[in-house]
Amino acid sequence: MARYIGKRVLTMIPVLIGVSLLIFLLLELAPGDAAQSILGDYASEESLNELREEMGLNDPLIVQYGRFMKDLLLKGDLGNSYQTGRPVLETILERYPMTILVAILAVIATALLGVTTGLLSAVKQYSWIDNICTVIGMIGVSSPSFFTGLILIFIFSGKLGWLPASGSYGPQYFILPIITMAFGSCASQMRMTRSAMLEVMRQDYIRTAKAKGQGDKKIVFHHELRNALVPIITVIGQQAGVLLGGAMIVEQIFSIPGVGKLMIDSIGTRDYPMVRGGVLFIALSFSVVNLLVDLAYSTVDPRIRSQLVHQSKKKKGASA
Amino acid sequence: MNQKRNKTLLRIREFFRLLFRKKITVLALAIFLVLVVMVLLAPVIAPYGYDDQDISRAFTSPCREFLFGTDKLGRDIFSRVLYGGRISLSIGIIATLIASAVGILLGAVSGYYGGWFDNVLMRLFDVLMSMPPILLAIAISASLGNGIMNAALAVIVTAIPMKARLARGQVLTIRSQEYMEAAIATNASTAQIIFRHVLPNILPVIIVQITLTVAGSITTVASLSYLGLGVQAPFPEWGAMLSAGRSYLKDYPYVILAPGIALLLTLFSLNVLGDGIRDALDPRLKD
């Protein structure tokens, strides 16, 4: 198992180097250079050139990238913000917990909503409950988060005055953003839960459980749901990554000060070191989430675990 | 030859029979067709131009003259939603087609040949897919700047890796099938094999993907515009309209209602259609 984890972590490294190179090159294409961003649009050509020379912007791209990577890897330095002059890493670390909090709450809400409705749909297959859940789920997927969010703000904040529309000063500020995200992503969870449950419900051991007079509740939760768990967790994992991306837009809608909002605001002010840091951070988180999800399968399903262990043993044997 | 054509016809008829079995799919197709026709006929239907301003009639509530009301500059929202649909739908469809063509070709070739080409391409796609798609789209828009073309390009680049992976996986599966061996044995050229044997066999999966990707592309463009990174004023893209209406939400909710519902209806019909097509093409995928 440790071998498998080690291997997965090692394969992440080249991918992340690739991401850093990609984002470095992309932002090189961006309009205006660093000197221009720092000194403003009216700076003289002379002072611009001076600053460019000082910052090493006249060096070849590969040298600049090398310097960026050296600072990042040896000193953990992502550069300074053009706007505030503060280290990028510091600012991002300040904002990061907020993004993670939103994403985690959204994953929990999505899973709860999706699994519950999926369970209902499966147990009452082809009933009106099943149909309504399916249609509402479809509307959820189809409604972009910014539309759902604005409608929720209008109803619960504007008309009813129950919940705040923007900011992050307490638990009540997170209710609307979380509902927005859960509504948009619960459908795939629901669909997967429904079909996994239906699959399990056809199995012989369920008939056996019924035949021995087991109660309905126990059958649903103990026998059926538990066996349907692997596909359900797979979708939770896939959703986790998507919700991490979705958090960026939701932060913007509800003015939550997370990395997403920081990044989008920084694009507006051409604060490219901040944008670069933000992208790298989110990409790293995304990869870590995917790794954790893979590991989660093996905890839930002993069959997968033994497969992994078996595989690495076999490889070890082959290399020896 | 005739017999072959008959068979194809039969298969197509069977497909439509399966597709229209569910009422909701028929409804979705109807909604989508109505939307497309309205958007295509925008210059005929729209009572005003998308940029006809008249400050004196700003924020008129929906009435007979202005079906969905007017915005802060007194522009007719109904007309803007119609013209906006042209931008959203055309970017969605064109970007998807380009991304699919490029992605599928790359994926098919790389799956068919394997080797270093496959290796390099797949590592590149690993990198592109190691971020949430919306993040990649945001990064690309940030670097290229605002505008319709750049937003479309961001959507295309974001969509290619998924298509290529899908096509590659399919090709790897069918490469080991017997009919491929037979094709190779009859000395068919590579182009012949890819276009006559490989692509037709992966078509069903691809069609479903394309329908769903159109919906995804429209969402991505709208999201970029909502964030201020995509289509810019005065062009009436739906996401941009929602973004502009946000500040007036409390007093004039109708400014966001029409573009939002248009977006919702479009995406809803495409998603339902995609599901319907999947069920009709491959009954095994159905629960």
UniProtKB/TrEMBL annotation, chain A:
GO CC terms in record: plasma membrane
Alphabetized Pfam families for the sequence: BPD_transp_1, BPD_transp_1_N
Domain of life from the UniProt record: Bacteria
Q: Where is the ABC transmembrane type-1 domain?
A: 96-297
Its placement in the membrane is given as:
Multi-pass membrane protein
Cell location: Cell membrane
Q: Which UniProt keywords apply?
A: Cell membrane, Membrane, Transmembrane, Transmembrane helix, Transport
Q: Where are the transmembrane segments?
A: 96-120, 132-157, 169-187, 228-254, 274-297
| UniProt-listed InterPro entries | BPD_transp_1_N, MetI-like, MetI-like_sf
Q: Which GO terms describe its biological process?
A: transmembrane transport
Q: Which family does it belong to?
A: Belongs to the binding-protein-dependent transport system permease family.
- Protein's UniProt name: ABC transporter permease
Q: Which organism is it from?
A: Hominifimenecus microfluidus
- Tell me the organism's taxonomic lineage: Bacteria, Bacillati, Bacillota, Clostridia, Lachnospirales
Automatic annotation (TrEMBL), chain B:
Protein name in the entry: ABC transporter permease
Q: Which Pfam families match?
A: BPD_transp_1 (PF00528), OppC_N (PF12911)
Instruction: Spell out the InterPro entries in the cross-references.
Output: BP-dependent_transpt_permease, MetI-like, MetI-like_sf, OppC_N
Q: Name one GO cellular component term.
A: plasma membrane
User: Which of UniProt's keywords are assigned here?
Assistant: Cell membrane, Membrane, Transmembrane, Transmembrane helix, Transport
Q: Which organism is it from?
A: Hominifimenecus microfluidus
Instruction: Return one Gene Ontology term, BP aspect.
Output: transmembrane transport
Provide the family line. Belongs to the binding-protein-dependent transport system permease family.
What are the residue boundaries of the ABC transmembrane type-1 domain, all occurrences included?
Answer: 85-274
Q: What is the lineage of its organism?
A: Bacteria, Bacillati, Bacillota, Clostridia, Lachnospirales
Its record classes its membrane topology as: Multi-pass membrane protein
Q: Where is it localised? A: Cell membrane
Where do the TM regions start and end? 24-50, 89-114, 134-160, 202-229, 252-274
